[in-house]
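Moderator note: this is an archived Q&A kept for reference. The question asked for a predicted structure of one protein chain; the sequence and the answer are reproduced below.
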Amino acid sequence: MNIEQNRSLKSLTTFKIGGPARFFVELAHANELTEALAFAEKETVPVLILGGGSNMLVSDRGFLGLVIHIANRGIDVQDLGTRTQLRIASGEVWDRVVQFAVERELWGIENLSRIPGQAGALAVQNVGAYGEEIKETLVSVEVFDRQRRLFRTLRNEECGFSYRKSIFNTSEKGRYIILFTTLALSRVPKRNISYPDVKKWFERRPEPAILEIREAIQAIRDKKFPFPAESIEGNAGSFFKNSVLPPDEYEKLESAFERNLPEQAARLRTIRARSEGGEIKIPSAFIFEACGLKGYREGNVQLNPTQPVIVLNETGEATAKEVLTLVHHVRTIVRDKTGLHLYTEPELIGFTAEELRSYGFNEEEIARYCYGR
C-alpha cells in the first residue's frame, strides 16, 4: 500500500477545484481497506472516501486527513430467470455499468445513463433521473462498517432510501464504506418513458428498444448538462436539490410568486397541477429561471445558462471560495423572492462550520458536511 502526501485533489474531482490531501492512497482491493484505516487511526486524522470525484467541492485548503480512493473493478452476473443480478465493484464507472446492462438488454437503469461518477456513490444519494431511482433496482450493498470494524451486507430496506437521501448521507454518514452494489434488473422489457422530456422524444414510438431509450437519455442530458468528466468547464453535476413541499408550504410559495413574480405564477400552478400525491416537487431550475438567474455569473463561476442547477467553473480557474460566494448570493436572491431555501447536493469537503455559516448554510446542512471540521 503506497500512501502519498500532499496529493492534489483538484485533478481528481470533476469540479477541478480544491487543495491537497494530507495523505492519499488508492485501493484496488477491499482487503487493503483495514490497513488504510489503521494508518488513519495511528495518525489520528479523519478519512474521506473518494470515488469518481463528481459530487463534491473540496476547500481551497484541501483535506487535512487521509483520502482513500476506491478503485476496485468488476461486474459479476447471476441469471435468475426473468431477472439478472449484477454485483458491481464500487470503482466501476457508473455509465459503463449502464452500457453493460443495456448491451445485455437488462432493464431498470437505462434512464440513469450519463450520470457521472463511480458505482459506489449511487446508493449514497439514492441517485435518480428521468423517473428512475437506484432504490428501485438495488438489492443490497456490501460495506465495511467502521463502527463495528467488520464487513457487512445491508439489504435495500436497511439503507433508508428517500429522495436524494439514505443512511449513508444522513444518520450513518461516515460509518459505512460501500465496496460492492448488487442490482436486480429485468430481462423482460420495463419501459419508463413517462418523464415529460422522454415522453415527448418517443411520442410516435410507444415501445422503444432499450438502446433507443439510453441514446435518448444521453441526448436529452447532453442538451442540458455538461457531462462533468468531459466538460471543459468543471462542475459537480447538479448543485441544487429540487424542493419537495407539503401543500401548506406550497401555498406560501404560490403567495410569494403572486407578490414578487406574478408573471411566473401561472407556470408554478402548472407544476402543481402535474403533481401526484400530497407533496409537490418544485424544480430548482424553474425557480432560478423565474428569478432571472440563468447564466448568473460572478468572476470565474457561473450558473449554467441552459440548466442553472449546475454551477460551472467557467474558466477552469475558479476557487472553492468563489463557488460558495456565488451559491450564497443566488440562494439569498431566491429566498428573498420566493421564501425557499434551496438545499445543495454535492459534498463540501474540508470546510469548517464557521465558514459554512458565513456562506448561509443552516445547522442541518452543517451537520451533514462534517468532513474536515
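Archived answer notes: Residues 246 and 268 are 15 Å apart (CA to CA).
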